[in-house]
Design a protein that fits this description.
homodimer; 411 residues; alpha/beta; Aspartate Aminotransferase, domain 1; 2 domains; seven-stranded mixed β-sheet; four-stranded antiparallel β-sheet; globular
């Protein structure tokens, strides 16, 4: 019955054909695209060509003749429309961690006299660790960290806050912040807003320019499907460009790197946020992956994402065996990301039992099973199969099997 | 005659068969491996398998089942013997620029009360830019930069120098520092020694442990052949591990990243120098490239490198047309890297004319033509062809052709 309904929804889904752009393994229900996006079929061919025709054949000349040198900028411009950014504000480089360091330092420089970074309690670790690391490095006379719960961030703003760092969609709960409101609150307090888009970019429209966001970072390997450890991206609003320097002054951020000049002179605009030489393999992979988004209506993508999570939530609610699960995902569409998070004291074992069933989810301590829905390739049939498998595991207490008792490291 | 001699030397070269491990384009003499190493034939197959069997098939589980999570450490351990490092001191991650930031900050923390970074005038730009960037970020009460010429570095050491940063082989001149003496001089002044191995690792033995080096960085895409923008590596001597933290406290440097703990606790040893998620594509490429070094005697590699540059220097000296060139490469073997640098007022046009002949060299401002010799794959025939082409260009004044007058950006 649920499978019939899922089949009907899939038939009626205008985005359903996009699944064919991905190489998904047979017999697997993959609901972990919020951790590692699936392999776009376009990637292997592009990588093969890059190895053979670029690196192998044209070698060093490829920096010019194949445009390697502009790839961070070009891939950034491909990401820009996905996050609501006009051109020349997005750059693809380094990791989120390294980019956060550059942008937090930028924010402190843009708000002299202010010393506090306000960060959300329970935000993704790297966001909090980097903030701590930067504060420890600069010393408390220059930088302090303040934490507040997600629903109290606006109240924690005061005239010492230089920048509010928040992740649009929380990695544990899947709860989505109101980017416009929180950005406005930061501005009213005289602070900047730095958004981490790791769990939103590529799964829903993001409106950086429209919300007046100052700075942002995002991930290349989750909903953008760029491959494991794909380069991250960063956004610097045009009004904040060319005002201050960032501390990781690598040679590729120089105005003219190939002059090999003695003194550092920052490149204009967002290009000064480059540091060292980027992996061309990694950039080519992400570049090919982004082509899947060509011509996609992001509102339609968001509608599908919400329909998938609605469908899954309803299917779980209809299963008596699932009663013991606590739904962390907000019911309100405006507050929901593209995942469903279910808490259970035996969450770890439940996740392992689901994976054994071929339903690939992940576990986040202390008790959360995450079901990530990537609207580019997940189907209603995936959601139905996951709900059935979950009910089956719980009804049969299959997660209590001895083999799930040893707690192993999971990603 | 020079070709006969070259052919004889190639026949007698025990390392000559290694050239077969690389996919070198037909009809090209590639002498730019000190900028971008050639493509090892093992790489495409390994990348294809990584895409299909790892990312494509096992998806997120690959972090464990294919050992992605340990790759920075494992690739680091493969590099360790090439730089004379005992295990658990080398990590492969990020770029040289980002790693320099981590290690310079480490050095300042290890030498509290000292505030000066001593750096070589004319060193590779990123080394100097990063040093400037760090000093500007910390402010002059905490960090100052002092520059000295390469042959005056030891004299410039005093009791405010926290760390001496030097590149073993200079990118312009190809001159090699005496790592042991300069490290000893730094230690006698109470400073640490941080070495950049970009132009030495993979071309000659490096003896980090034996020289008592404190910290080092190196490049994955020059003589290690890991591909354009391959991850860099860093070295932290065991005695300096677990003493201080580095500022780029990304989640992968945490003691237990997958606990997603609230507070940062650095991993033990060199692992705390990881920041964000690394590109697995880029690491797999470098890992495959490093297999070429399996079983190689680094002393034999060094002997071949010196024989190649000796042979090329002699061939150039024998050409009357080459009289106008100034040889920057030291005649003394102990002071020579694995490149020959020739200066000429029309160096840029000469490099372009050589490239048009299929002799791939590069130009470094203001007037240097660099001939990089990668002893893994360059032959004596390459050296002979380059010398002949150079003499031919100069004798015919071919570099004065109109088409070389427009100065374009070259890498």
């Amino acid at each position: 019955m649920i499978y019939d309904e899922a089949a009907r929804r899939d038939r009626e889904d205008p985005l359903a054909p996009l699944r064919e752009a991905f190489a998904l393994p047979e017999g697997i229900v993959y609901l972990d695209g919020n951790s590692l996006g699936a392999l776009p079929k376009a990637v292997p061919g592009r990588i093969r060509a890059m190895l053979k025709d670029e690196w192998g054949q044209d070698l060093i000349a490829s920096w010019n003749c194949h445009g390697w040198i502009d790839l961070p900028q070009r891939v950034g411009e491909r990401i820009a429309p996905l996050v609501g950014a006009a051109p020349e504000q997005v750059l693809c480089c380094d990791s989120i961690s390294v980019n956060l360091f550059k942008l937090l330092a930028t924010a402190l420089a843009l708000r002299p006299g202010r010393h506090t970074i306000l960060v959300e309690a329970g935000d993704f670790p790297t966001d909090r660790y980097l903030t701590e690391g930067l504060a420890a490095f600069l010393g408390e006379t220059r930088c302090r960290v303040r934490e507040a719960p997600g629903d109290r961030l606006a109240d924690a703003l005061d005239d010492d806050v230089a920048v509010l760092l928040a992740t649009e969609v929380n990695f544990r709960s899947g709860r989505r912040h109101a980017m416009d409101e929180l950005t406005r609150a930061a501005h009213e307090a005289g602070a900047l807003a730095l958004w981490d888009l790791a769990h939103s970019a590529g799964a829903m429209p993001v409106a950086l320019d429209a919300c007046g966001v100052d700075l942002a970072v995002g991930c290349g390997y989750k909903f953008l499907n760029g491959g494991p450890g794909a380069p991250a991206f960063l956004y610097v609003a045009r009004r904040h460009q060319n005002v201050v320097e960032q501390p990781l002054t690598g040679w590729l951020g120089h105005r003219d790197p190939f002059a090999f000049a003695d003194r550092y002179q920052p490149a204009a605009g967002v290009l000064r946020y480059q540091a060292g030489t980027p992996s061309i393999l990694a950039l080519r992979s992400l570049e090919a992956a982004l082509e899947v988004f060509d011509g996609i209506d992001l509102q339609a993508l968001r509608a599908k994402s919400l329909a998938l999570t609605d469908f899954f939530l309803a299917a779980v609610a209809a299963e008596p065996a699932c009663e013991a699960l606590t739904v962390l995902t907000p019911g309100d569409h405006g507050e929901r990301g593209s995942q469903v998070s279910l808490a259970h004291p035996e969450g770890y074992a439940i996740a392992q039992a689901l994976i054994e069933d071929g339903v690939i989810v992940d576990f986040r301590a202390p008790d959360i099973v995450r079901f990530g829905f990537a609207p580019l390739y997940n189907s209603f049939a995936d959601a139905a199969a996951a709900a059935r498998s979950l009910a089956d595991v719980l009804a049969g207490a299959r997660h209590r099997a001895e083999r799930f008792r040893v707690r192993a490291r999971v990603t």
